[in-house]
Fold each of these.
Amino acid sequence: MELVTPGLGLIFWTSLTFFFLMIILKKFAWKPILTAVKTREDNIEKALSSAKEAEEKMQQLTSQNEQILREAREERDIILKEARAAKDSIVGEAKNTAKNEAAKIMEDAKKSIENEKLKAITELKNQVAALSIEISEKILGSELSDKNKQQALMNTLVEDVTLN
Amino acid sequence: MNTLKDKTLLALILVFTSVLTVFGNADSTSKKKSFDASSFILHHVLDAHDWHILGEGENSIHLPLPIILLDRGLQVFSSNKFSVAHSEHGHDYAVTEDGLYAIFHEKIYRTIDGQLTFDEEGHPTEAHATPLDFSITRNVASMFLTTALLLWLFIGAARAYQKTGINSAPKGKQSFLEPLVLFVRDEIAIPNIGEKKYMKYMPYLLTVFFFIWINNLLGLVPFFPGGSNLTGNIAFTICLSVFTLYMTIYSANKNYWSHIFMPPVPKALYFIMIPIEIVGIFTKPFALMIRLFANMTAGHIVVLSFICIIFIKESAAWAGLSIPMALFISILELLVAALQAFIFTLLSALFIGSAIEEHHH
């Protein structure tokens, strides 16, 4: 029976001790400990999430870099192509110009040759004409000296005219 | 590995020392008269007004404790003052030097002419007034020791947090206590009370958990300054369960009271249900009180009973059986000490949680 009879003294001291222990521990132990633990947990969570964020950013950056690289490569290809085209066009133009020039020079040469030829022919014609006139003069001189001959000549000339 | 071995060895030595202490005590008793196991065990399980350390009778070593009585004012004196031994019809009692008070079976009586008179059943007669006893008994002293230990442990740990901040890993006391504090928070408070309101009850739950646990452990230490069966004392468990009852009623919301006074049953059953619900408010903490008291007292009684086999049989050969069994129970009690602290805290959290639960169906 004594075992289950609560002693007044022990009830008093237990209540008092427990109450003050709780008050003191609350102020000096539980609050600092729980706050510190909570802060640390928050920090860890924050650190984890920021690490994840950084990783995502990194990935984004890498993909961005790749994009830039790819674009640069494409641009380089375009520039090279353009350059090649420009080269081709310049070379072609130069060739054309040269060809045209050559053709022009040839033509000029031909023209001057033709001119010279004509000049020579004219000169030759003139000389031949002069010579023929001289010969004609000489022949005429001899022909006109005789009346018969003169008449014959006249006839021929007339014949020629009618024939013409 | 080595430390583990050392600790096991230390534990074994502790247990055997305790066994030998009891052996020594009881041995001298059995020489005088036949060994009374039940009174021996009861003496160990109950409270005492001085702290017995070693030995028996005249040669025993006691730590005197203050006696505080409310009787015609405040009377404070040392338990050493009960130095005059009396014996009447086989009832042994001690009287103070001034002959005013007598102590009989750890109960203090006012003497009549420096004597106690007994009735036929062996109790002191009604004529002896029993002053209100607020003495610092063995249990109270042991509780103060635990309190000092808790303050040292936790204020020290809290200081460490303030000093090193939260950036360094927990060290020393911190690293041992932090998982336990987190256990109470994450396994007891949050699941039962809820994420929103648990913080308000954390100081109570943490204090109750560590107070019970450390007191349980100190009670299991078989030599001075341990061995007091404080947590197995009904007065102690009453206090804690009343605290839980108070916390529950204090924080109860409308929903809780409506469940008691307007239970979800047909109105015709109210005359049965309402009394049952009202009784239910008190049976919950009552069960807490009985559970802790019975578990801890039973543990102490079982360990002592195994030891007592040796003295009942008056043969050291029985030690071969009783010591391994007592050792086994002692180790089991280590588990029970933590388990009972856990259950008490868990159920307190559960009761508080049910009192502040929001209405939902």
Amino acid sequence: MAKKTDITKAEGDLYLENLTKSFGDFTAVDDLSLQVPQGSFFALLGPSGCGKTTTLRMVSGLEDPTAGRIRIGDADITHEKPYKRPVNTVFQNYALFPHMTIWDNVAFGLKRRGIKDVKKQVDDALELIQLTQVAQRKPTQLSGGQQQRVALARAIVNRPAVLLLDEPLGALDLKLRRQMQLELKRIQTEVGLTFIHVTHDQEEAMTMADTVAVMNNGIIEQMGAPTQLYESPDTAFVANFLGQSNLFPATVVEVDGEDLVLEDPDGSFRMPKSRMGRNVSTDRGARVLVGVRPEKINIAALDAAAAGPADGNFVDGVVEATSFLGVSTQYEVRTPGGEIINVFAQNLDSQDLLPVASQVRLTWKPIHGFVLDGRQDIEAGVEIDPDALVVS
Amino acid sequence: MSTSTGPAAGASAPVDTRPSAGQRFSAWFGRNAIKIYAFFAFVYLLLPVAYTFAFSFNDAGRTNLVWQGFTLENWLNPCGAPEVCGSVVNSIVVAAVVTAMATLLGTLIAFALVRHRFRGRATTNLLIFLPMATPEVVLGSSLLALFLNILIPLGFWTVVIAHIMFCISFVVVTVKARLASLDPRLEQAAMDLYATEWQAFRRITLPLVAPGIAAAALLAFSLSFDDFIITNFNSGQFTTFPKFVYVSATRGIPPQANVIATAMFIIALAIVLISQFAGKRKREA
Amino acid sequence: MSIAAAIGDTIEDEPKPPPPSTNKGRKFTAYLLMLPGMLWLAIFFVIPLVALFMTSLQTPVPGGEVGQFQQTFSFSNYAETLTDDTYYIPLIRSFIYSGIATILALLIGYPLAYAIAFKGGKYRNLLLVMVIAPFFVSFILRTIAWRQILADEGPVVAVLRVIGVVGETGGIYPSAFAVIMGLTYNFLPFMTLPIYASLERVDPKLIEASGDLYAKPMTGFFKVTFPLSLPGVVAGTLLTFIPAAGDYVNAALLGRPSNTMIGNRIEYTFLSVNDYPTAAVLSFILMATILIMVLIYIRRVGTEDLV
């Protein structure tokens, strides 16, 4: 060891450097590098089997990396034993010790580290999660949401440099999950620890995290603040996996100043160059994917819309299906070129609902769209049913 | 790779941390100590089996205590020693009758316990558990006390009665374990699909519980076949295989006894392995 | 393995409550299903215990033949038997031998079960079959095989003579050691299987969690794995101790007369001396002592407090 530091007291940013994990021929995590600033709430988001849980287990020490390094501040913890790392995990399904009381569960880590007076710290942790009254119960006597909070307290009480959360809310029902999301965020802000949250639920990741890394096939597709990922996806996978996107193929006609002139079967239109994702070619004839989020498209009956001047890009079409969702109405519109475009329209005035077979004009501001490299699967990341896949 | 927070920087120089041969051995030993321990435990468990097997080929004559040389004579002529085959036949007949009766009675109790709620469950469970928690000498001597007091002559039937008694409990727990892991909604689903109670039992429950019943029957057969202590109290002049071996232990056990035991061992092992293999194939299909 | 499950299940609580019966008819069915089997147990298990108790209070018919007794409710039989050193010494010896054998079986069986459960991988089922395989060879023959293995001409003594543990003419059979070793051997699968059954149910995530919470592997084992396997340990020790305490085959085949256990006394008194009341007294004392010890043990370990 170049520098002898007390691993258990290491602190600072978490660095993953060229981290790789292979199981036989299968590479679960492929040359992954990233830095998580101290005190931030970081989310690893991706479908089952994308390598996010493997990454987490390497940080916690439950898997040994095939190559690469893991550091916390200056301390190298790559091959350190799990029980020596200043890292704690909130396990999927919690893994609470069934034979111990809640209090003993929370005190477990402190006692193992030989801390003498644990009472105050345990009591404070239970207070933080507002479960002081069940301290002497056994885990099976608690509800799912309560067990979840105990698992959190059991990890947090150790004040780890990094706290790992492995699909922590996966076992809770929707309403409780929403509530716990806010609670988790509150606790993270309060204790100021680095949280790394692994999830396949994009809404959960966006609600809580400062930074989200979208993983797919063992690599990070894109990383950034939730709004950045949502508004400016770099790849089709990110565009489809985070929320919904209308993606349609187009070809580059020319570059005109700050704009890109594009063409597709429904006509030609402009997009600002600042809205390009990764690896987009601007050569004449290059294939690109143009994306627009459904809620950013304005829909209006064709006769009314045609009267006014067209603001930005537009395309005409026919309503093929509608579904009323309460806060909004979803339209499926078919363009003359054969594309299906989804539109979410706010229900400001329910008389304005457009019936099926209406002739409509769709308009959107060029700045609201984005342009992606055309040489990728347009369907990548489209709504994957998490239940249909084996959990990684 | 896009990393908006920037890739991690800095790497310390690699340090030679290769362990010495001694360290490598102790690390290897640390990782595998439990496996080595388990290996010796298996040697302990299987050594007498190997001995029994080996001495079935001993050219021993009448006292099969010391190795005298290899022969196939015992295997070619398993009934060569007096009484061996007679006692084996007795044991097989007893075990067959006991298996049929105990499996039937025990399975019925298991069904009642798992599928029905009734007054007296606790008492029933206790009555099932107690025979398994009572030393065999007590079971044997108490039955003998009963037979002596009401003057029932000892023999084949008293042995059968005694064996059924202690096998029932084992059948109940084995079948119960299987039955309890069965989702009761399967039967409800069957009845929802127009099956009568009997048809639901016949078409759904019974096939699913059958492996448990088979395991219970196998267990009952081996318990009955191998029982000595209870048999010794209640058999009178009737001789079973274990009793024959025990009695002849003082003057020397003929090697044919080892032949029989080895053959039984191979048959039982084959049944268990085949049923495991078949079960696996079925699950994978 | 169903046998492991069955043995493990003897101590475990009911896995789940049965679906409620909807009507009187189903309740009646339950009794009907149980009737034959429970009747059998009542007639051939409960009544014999009563008969045994009655027999234990009998005294010889004055001037009668050997084996003729009459009901005199002589409770003094118990006092007489308990103060006779030909009986109480083997009784105490039985509990010492079976106690040591139980501890040894636990020390061998627990790591074995642990290795199969956590290191067995895809060979788990095969290894379990190997644990029960000895059962497929006659109990008596296995015990006799030990006689050959431990005999003066056998391999164990040869090794011990080379390393000087026993002298040139010394041996280890027959002896108390051989008896205890035989008891340990014969009941080892009964110890291993229930422990395996409860270890198999331990969620590996809990062990990972203990490591994550700064427990070294050994601490994690004693704080998490072992407590969670306690139901199996309790079942295993009972299934070893109870039959070992009542056994007489090992003492008869592997021991000297000075190693006789209470089982040998009961058998001899019942079947050879035909002193039925004394044998019945011994059986009852054996059963009562075991029952009391088991109750204290279960209370101490406090299995009801688990999970």
